[in-house]
Specification:
About 45% of the residues lie in helices and about 10% in strands. With about 550 residues, the protein is α/β, with parallel strands linked by helices. Helix 1 runs antiparallel to helix 5, helix 11 crosses helix 13 and helix 18 runs antiparallel to helix 23.
Length: about 550
């Protein structure tokens, strides 16, 4: 058969050759030695899984720490699964976690020299490469109907043969030019198939960067490379795209491991160098003592929207995901408290071969640590921005007086042992409600004689001076102790015979704390009262006395 004649029959509209795409339109990247070019290539199905953020973070770290490039490519060849806002959901979701791309699809369209980065815009490119395969005798049109394909599968079951379109079951593999031309003129629908060079019983070996050496059967199936509408299959599109875009490492979920034999074969027939593969195990969840994949149907934390709605700072989620990706990250963080995570040398070959366990309690702990290292201004900004969308009542309070808001978050912040009361922005309302009359409610009361509490508070009001420094403020507490039968020093109380004192100065300050904040446990009380001011504190105390 004249393969060039067949190629023109099938693709008369394709004038740019595959060779031109390889050498002229998509030239080799000029990058430093060892630079990695990676990509995150999701389908726009409207749901961004936290596992997708995990994989994209691994890709981003590998590219940027080696001086390479990180690409966001949208693989939208399956239009049946596509959602209307699918692309924007992916872009917004990744952006909310600070995942930075160098090229690809973005909010303003696309940017980069190796586009288009949306597969549905690359139709003629794929067809040019299929045309070249036809010219080489490595691709052909298949006119089999669904009924015929069903009959082939049924016969293979009878023959106990491997399923798939191959060997004696590939009915259109050896059609003549005249038969093909007649079918096209008759308007018969067809797909384009690869004429697989694989041999039955053949084996391939490759080294996965994460999973190590893998061996599997060679592909012998004549897979579809172009569907009847001219749109490529995922297998073919990714091989062409990764070649032209200069991808050095394909880092993706390990559900693709069984397809590597097909992908390696496609790079071979296309005459292109295959990238290195690194297959990432899926994020898991423990349930009833066993592990299962984190499910978008069962687990709210599977969706990235969960973390945004709960108010986990993006820094917290990234920090936690890095602990899942490399076991050495936690030790590094403990030794480098103030360095950005980008200073950590991520190691792809140190990723676990089994799926990491996603633990919300661990995320909570990591996030509390992250927020404890933030400045008061950063906490105020993050909490206020989150509340604007998810808690208007809280937002009204936080936004009313920026200095006051920053002041409340500054209390007990910093130092070697900062407080870790806040793990996510949705915790803020519970943390700071007593600072605002509009949110304040008494949550706790003292287990002490009410008349004694009244006496403590009345005596305290008589000496209270809002201008006192910390030592003077605590001196006022000590000052009122003897007259009401309390020890001015805790040591004095502990050394005395039982019954000598009703309590000690700490108990006195606890009564004032509950009166002012409605809680038994808060950050530094003197700092709280100084920020609130005399009018609010005195009113709170008098209201509490009245309630007793």
């Amino acid at each position: 058969m004249d393969n060039n004649k067949l190629a023109e029959l099938l693709f008369p509209h394709i004038k740019t050759t595959a060779q031109q795409y390889r050498e002229e339109i998509y030239p080799k990247r000029d990058l430093p030695e060892g630079a990695m070019v990676t990509r995150f290539a999701p389908s726009p199905t409207g749901f961004l899984h936290i596992g997708g953020v995990f994989t994209s973070l691994v890709n981003e770290r590998c590219a940027h720490q080696t001086g390479g490039a990180f690409i966001l490519r949208i693989e939208d060849t399956d239009k049946k699964r596509e959602k209307e806002d699918g692309i924007s959901a992916i872009i917004d979701g990744l952006d909310s976690f600070g995942i930075r791309f160098d090229e690809g699809v973005n909010k303003n369209g696309e940017s980069g020299a190796y586009g288009p980065y949306t597969q549905s815009f690359r139709g003629e490119i794929y067809q040019a490469f299929v045309k070249e395969l036809v010219e080489k005798g490595l691709a052909y049109p298949c006119f089999c109907s669904e009924e015929e394909l069903t009959a082939i599968r049924a016969q293979q079951e009878v023959d106990k043969a491997m399923p798939g379109y191959h060997g004696q079951y590939a009915k259109c593999r050896d059609l003549s030019y005249e038969e093909i031309e007649a079918n096209i003129k008759a308007g018969k629908s067809y797909v384009m198939r690869l004429r697989s060079p694989g041999k039955p019983g053949g084996r391939i070996k490759y080294k996965d960067v994460i999973k190590g050496n893998i061996e599997m059967d060679e592909n012998i199936v004549d897979i579809v490379v172009l569907k009847s509408d001219g749109i490529p299959t995922y297998h073919f599109a990714h091989a062409v795209d990764d070649s032209l875009m200069g991808t050095t490492h394909v880092i993706r979920g390990d559900e693709w491991v069984p397809s590597v034999n097909i992908h390696q074969q496609l790079f071979y027939v296309l005459g292109m160098k295959a990238p290195k593969y690194a297959h990432v195990a899926p994020v898991m969840k423990e349930e009833d003592g066993s592990k299962r994949k984190l499910s978008k149907r069962k687990d709210p934390e599977a969706a990235v929207s969960y973390f945004t709605q709960e108010g986990y700072p993006k820094e917290s989620v990234i920090e936690y995901l890095l602990t899942l990706a490399n076991s050495g990250y936690e030790d590094w963080r403990r030794a480098n408290r103030d360095l950005p995570y980008t200073e950590y040398k991520f190691q792809l070959n140190k990723m676990g071969q089994s799926g990491p366990l996603f633990d919300l309690q661990k995320l909570h702990s990591v996030s509390a640590d992250v927020i404890s290292r933030m400045t008061a201004a950063e906490v105020a900004e993050g909490a206020t921005a989150w509340a604007e969308t998810y808690d208007p009542e809280l937002h009204a309070c936080l936004a009313a007086d920026k200095a006051y808001t920053e002041g409340l978050f500054a209390i007990d912040r910093g130092g070697k042992k900062p407080r870790k009361d806040i793990a996510k922005w949705s915790d803020v309302k519970g943390y700071c409600a007593y600072f605002f009359d509009g949110l304040f409610s008494r949550e706790e009361a003292m287990e002490m004689d009410k008349d004694l509490q009244k006496e403590i508070l009345e005596r305290y009001l008589a000496v209270y001076d809002e201008n006192d420094d910390k030592d003077q403020w605590f001196g006022r507490m000590k000052e009122i102790c003897p007259a009401i039968g309390f020890a001015s020093e805790v040591k004095e109380f502990k050394a005395a015979e039982p019954g000598t004192f009703k309590g000690h100065v700490g108990d006195v300050s606890s009564v004032v704390r509950v009166a002012v904040t409605g809680r038994k446990n808060t950050p530094d009380l003197r700092s709280i009262m100084a920020l609130m001011g005399r009018a609010m504190c005195e009113q709170r105390i008098r209201d509490y006395i009245a309630s007793l």
